[in-house]
Amino acid sequence: MPNYRIIVDLSDRRLYLLDGDVVTRAFPVGIGKMLTVTPTGEYRIINKQPNPGGPFGVFWMGLSKPHYGIHGTNDPSSIGHMVSHGCIRMYNQDVIELSTLVPIGTRVTIRP
User: Fold this and answer.
1) DSSP strand E in 3-87: where?
2) Does 71 qualify as catalytic in the annotation?
3) Each residue of 21-68: pLDDT tens digit?
4) Based on the structure, what is the number of domains in the chain?
5) Residue of 67, 71, 81, 85 marked active site
6) Which one from 67, 81, 85, 87 is the annotated catalytic residue?
7) Does the annotation mark 85 as catalytic?
8) How does pLDDT run across 25-37, given as a tens digit for each residue?
């Protein structure tokens, strides 16, 4: 049984999926802009919702910090940039893949 955790590295704008201490996947992400930075720290995925609507693309995974999550986007050109209100944006196909692998309760570390 995999022991998944997520590390979001804001400096290189990538989300890493680890099984134990081994990186199994890496995805490009969009992060918060200067006035609405993505918060660093230790969180957990507390809910999942397909097709949340609006700018959240095809999937939403809420974090234990209220109002923040990992989600898809309706603007794929924003990936790799500092554009969000603090959430972590992924390409829709990437967030679907990630959501099938990680259960609710998965640890998410966001580091500068």
Assistant:
1) 4-9, 14-19, 22-28, 31-32, 41-50, 59-63, 69-71, 82-84
2) yes
3) 999 999 999 999 999 999 999 999 999 999 998 899 999 999 999 999
4) 1
5) 71
6) 87
7) no
8) 999 999 999 999 9
